[in-house]
């Protein structure tokens, strides 16, 4: 994506932070995340960014992670700052002072409206809802989404309450940016890799290879 498009995403995300409040979910806390322990699907989604595996994603770790998967440092810093500013307070465990640190054990509290439903309210992956994404919106290529098909999906998923519109838009813009092929299609297996977190290490390895060849 051109630099202008990247800055637009960052701008939208920052405006959303300033003007809106993320929907919070009232559910029981998960068992404390720890290295090698049992994790919910949504926790697997973000564990790549927890470099020291202590269950907390600091701002520095987020910036490092964004750079590792291929974003330019300035954009990575802007996006990571926005992400931790939103997710940190929402995921702070009860009894602790809110901070910009993202606590993986409570990441379920960051689930928002107007999403695909591929994660349920407890952060568990729902295969049938994931399949619906492509059954409903893959019009040109089976099991792949052009950008306009992604937009169609986002519009169809919008709730009456607009609070969730901006985060859903930014999430999928980022997904399309990092996962699209040379023709601009976002494939089903790539999206699945984003949901389960397996795509991020692959992107990091690819980025490392590209940089070593420069």
UniProtKB/TrEMBL annotation:
InterPro entries hit by this protein: Caleosin-related, EF_hand_dom
Keywords of the record: Signal
Ranges annotated as spanning the membrane: none
Signal peptide (UniProt feature, chain positions): 1-22
Superkingdom of origin: Eukaryota
Family label: Belongs to the caleosin family.
Name of the protein described by the UniProt record: EF-hand domain-containing protein
């Amino acid at each position: 994506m051109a630099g202008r498009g990247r800055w637009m995403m960052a701008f939208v995300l920052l405006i959303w932070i300033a003007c809106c409040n993320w929907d919070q979910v009232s559910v029981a806390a998960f068992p404390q995340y720890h290295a090698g322990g049992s994790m919910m699907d949504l926790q697997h989604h973000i564990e790549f960014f927890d470099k020291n595996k202590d269950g907390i994603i600091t701002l520095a770790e987020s910036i490092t992670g964004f750079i590792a998967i291929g974003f330019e440092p300035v954009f990575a810093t802007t996006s990571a700052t926005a992400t931790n500013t939103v997710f940190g307070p929402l995921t702070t465990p009860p009894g602790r002072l809110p901070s910009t640190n993202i606590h993986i054990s409570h990441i379920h509290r960051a689930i928002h409206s107007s999403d695909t439903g591929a994660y349920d309210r407890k952060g568990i992956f729902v295969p049938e809802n994931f399949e619906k994404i492509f059954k409903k919106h893959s019009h040109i290529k089976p099991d792949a989404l052009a950008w306009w098909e992604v937009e169609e999906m986002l519009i169809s998923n919008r709730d009456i309450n607009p609070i969730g519109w901006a985060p859903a838009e930014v999430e999928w813009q980022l997904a399309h940016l990092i996962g699209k092929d040379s023709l601009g299609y976002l494939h089903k297996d790539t999206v699945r890799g984003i949901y389960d977190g397996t795509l991020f290490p692959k992107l990091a390895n690819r980025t490392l290879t590209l940089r070593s060849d420069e």
